[in-house]
């Protein structure tokens, strides 16, 4: 037998329930994966609450990144049984076993644990497209990253530093600010005690930043625009505080600004991107350029508690669920 944590209907964490089921079997082009580590992400909350549309009427299995071991393969698959692999897809990760398309899998290199792989497939690849495509930060640039002490934020600070970029961040407590500072940021602003707009302008001597990477949404987007220099770029890639409904396209006219709202899965759908970007990310982890901070671990059956902690901003770094 296997099990999954399903969401019975859109709503709160009380809608999670454990569903026992037979171990699924792979079809053509698919593998059966015994999952060993699952990453927690805010997109999981978006799906659980119904902010993002479901593809099923009920009992959604959410979760977008995980690692595990191949236990069986379907026709046409050349991956070996026993191979450790990781993936990021829209949903389906909150399970002890799952069937998944072989083309969605990335082999895990020696020297990288299943937990580390599960922690970075969605978050690390998000950082990759943010800083290489959405706004390709270059050496000498200064940028601002919101939620700097979160899973994406801690990875972004280190990767930006590696690229020679001056990264400023925001976080919600002194402890989170200190954590982000230890992960590549030049300065981190406690947004609960200081105005991040005024502080960003002070830190840049009134010039502003080339780009803002904003995953917070409602409470930050309009202010994020205020710290961009002329021709700057607002990269809005999440909405943990809700959608920015008061934002208007005309707000960009203050500096001939650019706005982009990217998603990871448009990038992973590009031929060759997933393997190439994953290889670059794993290489930086193996070299020690990027350290992966796993701040919390939960049993998969306690996923409701993990969601509650994430939504109440009590987490730092990456959170791992263990089946």
From TrEMBL:
<dbReference type="InterPro" id="IPR020843">
    <property type="entry name" value="ER"/>
</dbReference>
<dbReference type="GO" id="GO:0008270">
    <property type="term" value="F:zinc ion binding"/>
</dbReference>
<keyword id="KW-0560">Oxidoreductase</keyword>
<dbReference type="InterPro" id="IPR013154">
    <property type="entry name" value="ADH-like_N"/>
</dbReference>
<dbReference type="GO" id="GO:0070402">
    <property type="term" value="F:NADPH binding"/>
</dbReference>
<protein>
    <submittedName>
        <fullName>NADPH:quinone reductase</fullName>
        <ecNumber>1.6.5.5</ecNumber>
    </submittedName>
</protein>
<dbReference type="GO" id="GO:0005829">
    <property type="term" value="C:cytosol"/>
</dbReference>
<dbReference type="GO" id="GO:0035925">
    <property type="term" value="F:mRNA 3'-UTR AU-rich region binding"/>
</dbReference>
<dbReference type="Pfam" id="PF08240">
    <property type="entry name" value="ADH_N"/>
</dbReference>
<dbReference type="GO" id="GO:0003960">
    <property type="term" value="F:quinone reductase (NADPH) activity"/>
</dbReference>
<dbReference type="InterPro" id="IPR011032">
    <property type="entry name" value="GroES-like_sf"/>
</dbReference>
<dbReference type="InterPro" id="IPR047618">
    <property type="entry name" value="QOR-like"/>
</dbReference>
<dbReference type="InterPro" id="IPR002364">
    <property type="entry name" value="Quin_OxRdtase/zeta-crystal_CS"/>
</dbReference>
<dbReference type="Pfam" id="PF00107">
    <property type="entry name" value="ADH_zinc_N"/>
</dbReference>
<feature type="domain" description="Enoyl reductase (ER)">
    <location>
        <begin position="11"/>
        <end position="321"/>
    </location>
</feature>
<dbReference type="InterPro" id="IPR036291">
    <property type="entry name" value="NAD(P)-bd_dom_sf"/>
</dbReference>
<keyword id="KW-0521">NADP</keyword>
<dbReference type="InterPro" id="IPR013149">
    <property type="entry name" value="ADH-like_C"/>
</dbReference>
